[in-house]
């Protein structure tokens, strides 16, 4: 299990992009955010914002649709793989590979994702 980088580390490692306002993503929800050709699933897990690719590693199904599951996890609506949104780890297949995670920081009411940070 990996640990999440804190905001200073995120700022140092990636190009921060404002993806939402804090109030856009209520606690317990995960929403799709389009950034050019890329889609991110942005989750609010008890006030902690988490960002992962919005493409399931099984066959590309969406992960940013609706409610978070227990333990800050997201479920793919296509074949029901479950990922930990904090780490990207697969909690239930058929997916086998983890989904990419992105460092997130919150500042002045905005949620920022470090897009170029290493996976
Ligand atoms: S595409 Fe997500 S479980 Fe198959």
General description of the model:
- The strands form 3 sheets. The protein has a 5-stranded antiparallel β-sheet, with no helix packed on it.
- The chain has a single domain, classed as Rieske [2Fe-2S] iron-sulphur domain (Rieske Iron-sulfur Protein, 3-layer Sandwich).
- The two termini are 14 Å apart.
- The radius of gyration is 13 Å and the shape is globular.
- Mean pLDDT is 87; it is low at 1-7.
- It is mainly β and 119 residues long.
- It is built from 1 helix and 11 strands; from the N terminus they run αβββββββββββ.
Q: What ranges have pLDDT less than 50 throughout 5 or more consecutive residues?
A: 1-7
Category from helices, strands and their pairing: mainly beta
The CATH architecture comes to 3-layer Sandwich
Major sheet details: 5 strands, antiparallel
Mean pLDDT: 87
- Which homologous superfamily in CATH is the superfamily? Rieske [2Fe-2S] iron-sulphur domain
| Tally of individual domains | 1
